[in-house]
């Protein structure tokens, strides 16, 4: 169907963006729909626009080749597969979807509104479902009308994939010669027939491509299909590669029990020391990183990682031993941090650094070395050695300037050191170095707020939440800022949206309490502040807000107590002023006078404190 098709005209919709897309993942795997969109628009787009979104376009449509030159790359792109040790976080696909949505939006601003027709969305990979949600949310029907047909209304976008319905459709597609154009023409019927070798090779290519791209659902689905086709005795390396990739993806998808079952299978099937060490390490990481806090077990994690260390120590090859043992020591360092022992963790990371320096060639495993330096920097920060941390982070960024996350780490450190302009510069570099993600905007909002640029802070938080509406910390900060600006309706909406995602979040409860107090619902405000303090007893903002509520409702003694708790982390002139008013109302003028005098020492320009102090002393305020 061409772009001028009657499908759009007859229903009074804008012209088609491209011919209707079949989103069935068995056609082209992850981003079946995304690749069709990119392939249609890239030839028409200007080179500057294509270059701006090179990572996103090359991810969803790698077969575009030279039409999308690589502009932004981490050094990992140039390394052998065995040295690409970083696995994309689950939210990577959201970053890709946001970038592609911005690319489409820029194109439509130049060409006018369009209609996108997508079929078989119920068979699409989660990457395409996520992409269509983002397109709907960020472009809106005024710019792009997304039509998905009767089988896939928007309410079903989260429906689980159904593997039992997969093979029949896959066989039909393969018979037509259309299946798996990107992922190596995966031959489904040959998995169950006389030519499984072709299936294995196709699945190997597909699993590696999907893992490199952060498409964890596809890795899990394809890897579980691949494992029965490989004999662990005759092809142990390939079998382990499939198992490890699949378990890694399952862990990323919060399916830790299934991942652990695969590692148990590896222990049953394999006698390879390397496999047993890697399975032990990976099991330990599942125990320490489990998405459900109730599922975490630091003692079990320590036992598993210690087993990995014991095995890796005995590996005969010096280079392999240096790498794998260093990897395991770094894993144990994470456990020690969670156990509250950062000094011990630093010792372990330093051992891993020393192993890399002594046991690896200078050009070998650069990503492993950078991860160790970045982790050493975080531990140095915990131990009060920021200058050491900054030196390590400078080295990391100099070695891999195309990796955005390191700029976030250094920006956060610079912010703590009071070097706000440099911190903002790092956040802005992170914004440009990779696909869009909310953290740099969220962090820059902190800087803007601290310097009094409330409008700029609000704009940054708005953009962070446009990129990820479920970013709870950004909802909490924006709710608090909106409450301070008197926009109580919007503040309440953010607080309630955040609490629906993370019930009991103390920052959201504090913001909700501020809204309730401002709107005169004092009992509800007190309940919100109490709940916040139950969950975060050291939350200064909640103590201060509850103190203000107590003062406002005629309880100056309670206000004094709450303001005193709010002042425990450090002296603050505004809190001293508020406590002075409460002390005066409670009949404690000498203490009130001391608070006002101290507030004026800290902020000599505070005329309100000056007037109150003069009044207490029975003096006429200065003219």
Write up this protein:
The chain starts with 5 loop residues before the first helix and ends in a 7-residue tail after the last helix. By secondary structure, the protein is mainly alpha-helical. It has a three-stranded parallel β-sheet with strand order 1-2-3, covered by helices on one side. It has helices at residues 6-9, 25-28, 32-41, 47-52, 54-60, 92-111, 126-139, 166-175, 188-191, 196-213, 216-226, 236-252, 256-269, 273-289, 298-313, 318-338, 342-359, 366-382, 386-399, 404-416, 420-433, 439-450, 454-467, 472-484, 488-501, 506-518, 522-535, 540-552, 556-566, 573-585, 589-602, 607-616; strands spanning 21-22, 114-119, 144-147. The longest helix has 21 residues, at 318-338. The radius of gyration is 29 Å and the shape is globular. Helix 17 (342-359) packs antiparallel against helix 18. Strand 2 (114-119), helix 7 (126-139) and strand 3 form a beta-alpha-beta unit. It has 32 helices and three strands. Residues 1-10, 150-166, 173-181 and 187-193 have low confidence and may be disordered.
Question: What is this structure's SSE topology?
Answer:
Blueprint: H1 6-9, E1 21-22, H2 25-28, H3 32-41, H4 47-52, H5 54-60, H6 92-111, E2 114-119, H7 126-139, E3 144-147, H8 166-175, H9 188-191, H10 196-213, H11 216-226, H12 236-252, H13 256-269, H14 273-289, H15 298-313, H16 318-338, H17 342-359, H18 366-382, H19 386-399, H20 404-416, H21 420-433, H22 439-450, H23 454-467, H24 472-484, H25 488-501, H26 506-518, H27 522-535, H28 540-552, H29 556-566, H30 573-585, H31 589-602, H32 607-616
Parallel strand pairs: 1-2, 2-3
């Amino acid at each position: 169907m061409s772009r001028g098709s009657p499908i759009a005209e007859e229903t009074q919709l804008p012209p088609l963006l491209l011919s209707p897309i079949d989103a069935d993942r068995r056609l082209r795997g992850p981003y079946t729909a995304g690749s069709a969109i990119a392939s249609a628009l890239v030839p028409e787009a200007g080179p500057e626009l294509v270059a701006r979104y090179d990572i996103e376009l090359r991810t969803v449509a790698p077969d575009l080749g030279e039409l999308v030159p690589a502009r932004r790359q981490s050094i990992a792109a140039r390394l052998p597969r065995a040295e690409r040790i970083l696995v994309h976080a689950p939210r990577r696909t959201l970053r890709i979807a946001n970038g592609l949505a911005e690319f489409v939006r820029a194109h439509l601003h130049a060409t006018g509104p369009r209609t996108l027709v997508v079929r078989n969305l119920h068979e699409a990979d989660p990457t395409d479902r996520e992409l269509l949600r983002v397109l709907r949310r960020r472009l809106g029907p005024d710019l792009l009308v997304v039509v998905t047909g009767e089988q896939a209304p928007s309410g079903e976008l989260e429906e689980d994939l159904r593997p039992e319905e997969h093979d029949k459709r896959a066989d039909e597609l393969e018979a037509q010669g259309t299946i798996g154009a990107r992922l190596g023409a995966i031959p489904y019927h040959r998995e169950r027939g006389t030519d499984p070798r072709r299936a294995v090779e196709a699945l190997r290519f597909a699993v590696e491509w999907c893992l490199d791209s952060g498409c964890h659902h596809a890795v899990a689905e394809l890897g579980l299909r691949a494992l029965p086709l490989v004999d662990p005795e005759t092809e142990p390396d390939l079998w382990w590669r499939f198992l490890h990739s699949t378990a890694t993806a399952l862990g990323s998808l919060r399916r830790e029990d299934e991942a652990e079952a695969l590692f148990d299978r590896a222990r049953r099937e394999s006698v390879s020391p390397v496999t047993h060490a890697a399975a032990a390490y990976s099991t330990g990481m599942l125990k320490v990183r489990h998405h459900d806090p109730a599922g975490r077990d630091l003692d079990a994690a320590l036992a598993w990682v210690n087993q990995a260390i014991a095995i890796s120590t005995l590996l005969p090859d010096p280079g392999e031993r240096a790498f794998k043992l260093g990897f395991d020591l770094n894993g144990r360092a994470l456990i020690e941090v969670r156990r509250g022992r950062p000094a011990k963790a630093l010792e372990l990371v330093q051992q891993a650094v020393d192993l890399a320096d002594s046991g690896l060639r200078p050009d070998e495993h650069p990503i492993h070395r950078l991860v160790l330096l970045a982790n050493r920097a975080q531990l140095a920060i915990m131990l009060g050695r920021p200058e050491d941390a900054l030196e390590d982070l400078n080295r990391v960024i100099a070695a891999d300037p195309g990796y955005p996350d390191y700029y976030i780490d250094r920006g956060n450190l610079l912010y703590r050191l009071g070097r706000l302009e440099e911190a903002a510069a790092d956040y802005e570099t992170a914004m440009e170095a990779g696909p869009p993600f909310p953290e740099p905007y969220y962090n820059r909002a902190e800087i803007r707020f601290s310097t009094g640029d409330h409008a700029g802070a609000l704009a940054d938080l708005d953009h962070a939440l446009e990129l990820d509406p479920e970013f709870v910390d950004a909802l909490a900060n924006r709710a608090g800022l909106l409450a301070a600006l008197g926009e109580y309706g919007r503040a309440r909406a953010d607080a309630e949206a955040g609490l629906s995602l993370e019930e009991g979040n103390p920052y959201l409860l504090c913001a909700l309490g501020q809204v309730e107090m401002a709107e005169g619902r004092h009992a509800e405000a007190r309940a919100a502040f109490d709940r916040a303090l139950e969950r975060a007893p050291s939350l200064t903002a909640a103590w201060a807000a509850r103190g203000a509520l107590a003062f406002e409702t005629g309880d100056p003694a309670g206000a004094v107590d709450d303001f005193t708790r709010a002042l425990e982390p450090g002296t603050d002139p505004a809190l001293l002023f508020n406590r002075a008013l409460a002390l005066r109302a409670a009949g404690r003028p000498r203490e009130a006078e001391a608070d006002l005098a101290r507030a004026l020492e800290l902020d000599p320009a505070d005329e309100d404190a000056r007037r109150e102090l003069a009044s207490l002393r029975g003096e006429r305020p200065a003219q």
